[in-house]
Amino acid sequence: MVTRHSRKIRLHGFNNLAKTLSYNIYDICYAKTERHRSEYIGYIDEAYNAERLSEILTTVAELIGANILDISRQDYDPQGASVVMLISEEPVVSAKLSRDKAEHPGPLPETVLAHLDKSHITVHTYPESHPEGGISTFRADIDVATCGRISPLRALNYLIHTLESDIVILDYRVRGFTRDVRGRKHFIDHDITSIQNFISRDVINRYEMIDVNVYQENIFHTKMLLKDFDLNNYLFGLARDDYSARELRDIERRLKREMAEIYYGRNLPTLA
């Protein structure tokens, strides 16, 4: 279900509400040997290197209607990558300036031609594994922070579909206020009761979801756990036939415990 949109509010000056979507994903696998765990980390590093992450964030900027001002990206040794993208809501050279044909001095070097909205998109990746237990986990943190009319929620379904993951944790917050022409403060400029209202039906059908919302503070939190568990999708380096039935049962228990601990945010009792 999609929430209704509020009527447009006539503002006094610029809409300076700060909207931030924090999108955290977790991908989990079982890699039996040290070599397989190392290969998994290498695979993740290649699949989510800084160049590909930059492409993903570029699409996010296009979806929310932002202009890219600058991109900084970095791959790390031994693992992980980061991308930081500065964005603005309006074109770098405003339409007014482009239409102005009158003779006058050009802008000084320190003049800002774009309206910088204090907006940015960032991503950081954290591939990791533990030497015992065979569990390897990949985490990516994406923050889409906008100031103005553009909303980071417009990129939500793209991110979920592009980075298909076992667990997704979403936080959305609107901060600050903007004034209308009568001087009345507005602490949010759109209707929202849950992040789930902005998620497509096919995604909702695939995930278990929990909401923790603080409406009076405009803070919204949703956690998502993949419903279907197919062990074949979690084995890295070796196939199902390479394990005994007992080993497979143990691996499944380990994987499900890892997922439950991340989803609920607490450690569970150690397996016997």
Describe the structure.
- The strands form two sheets. Strands 1, 2, 3, 4, 5, 6, 9, 10 and 11 form a nine-stranded mixed sheet that branches. The protein has a two-stranded antiparallel ribbon with strand order 7-8.
- The protein is 25% helix and 32% strand.
- It has one domain: S-adenosylmethionine decarboxylase, CATH 3.60.90.10.
- The protein is α+β, with helices and mostly antiparallel strands.
- The longest helix is centred in the last third of the chain and has 20 residues, at 245-264.
- It starts with 17 loop residues before the first strand and ends in an 8-residue tail after the last helix.
- Strand 4 and strand 5 form a beta hairpin.
- Mean pLDDT is 83; it is low at 1-6 and 92-116.
Compact summary:
This protein is of the alpha+beta class and 272 residues long. The protein contains six helices and eleven strands. It has a single domain (18-91, 113-263), classed as S-adenosylmethionine decarboxylase (4-Layer Sandwich), CATH 3.60.90.
Task: Name its key features.
nine-stranded mixed sheet; single chain; S-adenosylmethionine decarboxylase; globular; two-stranded antiparallel ribbon; alpha+beta; 32% strand
Most strands sheet:
9 strands, mixed
- Counted by DSSP, the helix tally is 6
Give the tally of β-strands. 11
Report strand %.
Answer: 25-35%
At the first level of CATH, the class is Alpha Beta
Which ranges are low-confidence, i.e. pLDDT below 50, for 5 or more consecutive residues?
A: 1-6, 92-116
CATH third-tier fold name? S-adenosylmethionine decarboxylase
Task: Classify the helix fraction into a percent range.
Answer: 10-25%
N-end to C-end Cα span: 44 Å
- The secondary-structure element order is EHHEEHEEHEEEHEEEH
- Name the structural class: alpha+beta
Report the mean per-residue pLDDT as an integer: 83
The CATH superfamily is known as S-adenosylmethionine decarboxylase
When the domains are counted, the total is 1
Label the overall shape.
globular
